[in-house]
Specification:
The protein is α/β, with parallel strands linked by helices. It has six helices and ten strands; from the N terminus they run H-E-E-E-H-E-H-E-H-E-E-H-E-H-E-E.
C-alpha cells in the first residue's frame, strides 16, 4: 500500500486526477481511493513516536523530552523541525558513528548539508574545537541555528548558507557530507583542498547500490577509500586525504 497526503482544495483535486490517470496506465492497473482528513494537529503528531536514540556514546534526545540518558553519555538535544536529521534515519546514524570514530579533540570539522544541525552539534559535543555547518536551504539553516543555540554550542559551531564547498577557505580534519549520490561529485571537487593531510571524509546519504559509484568518485577526487559501512540498505564511505 502506498499512502500519500495532498493539500485540500483545487491543487489536491488536480493531484488526485493525475494519480488516478497514471495508475490506470500502469502495467497492472492500481485503484486509487481518497478521503478528507480533518486537521487535528497532525503536523506535530509525529512527536508521539519520537524516542531517544543511542549511537555509540551519543544519545539524541528530542527537545521536548526529559534527559534520562544516564552518566557517561554525550547528549544532543534536537528538534528537527522542517529539516532532515532526527537521528532515526540510517544515514544519520552512520554519520554519527563515523564522527565518533574519527573525531580528535580540538579538530576542525565541516558538515556539508547540515539539515537540522545534528552532525555539527554532535561533533562539537565529541570534542571538535571548530565546526562549520553549511546548507543551501534557508529553512534548514534557521532550524540548525536554533538547535545549536538549544545545545549551547554556538561558541564552536557556525552555520552558513552555501551550496557546497567552493567558497569555503577552511582546512578541516573531518568533512561529513550526508547528501545524495548525485550531490556528492560537486562536493568532492573541493574536498582535497579543504581537507588537511591525513584528514577524513565521510560521504553518506546513498543506498548500497550506489556505493561502487561513490567510491569511484571519491578516488577520482584524490582521496583514499578506507572503509565502507552499511546499515539497513544505506551506505557511508570513509576516505582519507593522503598525507604528503
Amino acid at each position: 500500500m502506498l499512502r500519500a497526503y495532498v493539500p485540500a482544495g483545487a491543487a489536491g483535486r488536480a493531484a488526485l486526477v493525475r494519480l488516478r490517470r497514471d495508475f490506470r496506465r500502469a502495467p497492472v492497473p492500481v485503484p486509487v481511493t481518497s478521503r478528507v482528513i480533518r486537521d487535528s494537529g497532525w503536523a506535530d503528531a509525529w512527536k508521539a513516536h519520537a524516542r531517544p536514540i543511542k549511537i555509540g556514546r551519543l544519545t539524541v534526545v528530542p527537545s521536548w523530552m526529559p534527559n534520562r540518558a544516564g552518566r557517561g553519555r554525550t547528549v544532543v538535544r534536537l528538534d528537527p523541525g522542517m529539516a532532515f536529521g532526527s537521528g532515526e534515519h540510517p544515514t544519520t546514524q552512520l554519520c554519527l558513528a563515523a564522527i565518533e570514530r574519527h573525531m580528535r579533540s580540538g579538530a576542525t570539522v565541516i558538515d556539508v548539508g547540515t539539515g537540522s544541525g545534528i552532525l555539527a552539534i554532535a561533533a562539537a559535543r565529541l570534542g571538535a574545537a571548530r565546526v562549520l555547518a553549511i546548507d543551501n536551504d534557508p529553512v534548514a539553516v534557521a532550524v540548525a541555528r536554533a538547535n545549536v543555540r538549544a545545545n549551547r554550542a554556538g561558541s564552536r559551531v557556525s552555520i552558513r548558507t552555501a551550496a557546497g564547498l567552493a567558497r569555503v577557505r577552511l582546512r578541516a580534519d573531518l568533512i561529513v557530507g550526508n547528501l545524495t549520490a548525485e550531490s556528492l561529485p560537486g562536493i568532492l571537487a573541493d574536498c582535497s583542498r579543504c581537507l588537511r593531510p591525513g584528514g577524513w571524509l565521510i560521504a553518506c546519504g546513498f543506498s548500497n547500490v550506489r556505493a561502487g559509484e561513490v567510491r569511484e568518485h571519491v578516488t577520482a577526487a584524490g582521496l583514499r577509500v578506507m572503509a565502507t559501512e552499511r546499515l539497513r540498505g544505506w551506505c557511508a564511505v570513509h576516505a582519507a586525504a593522503v598525507a604528503v
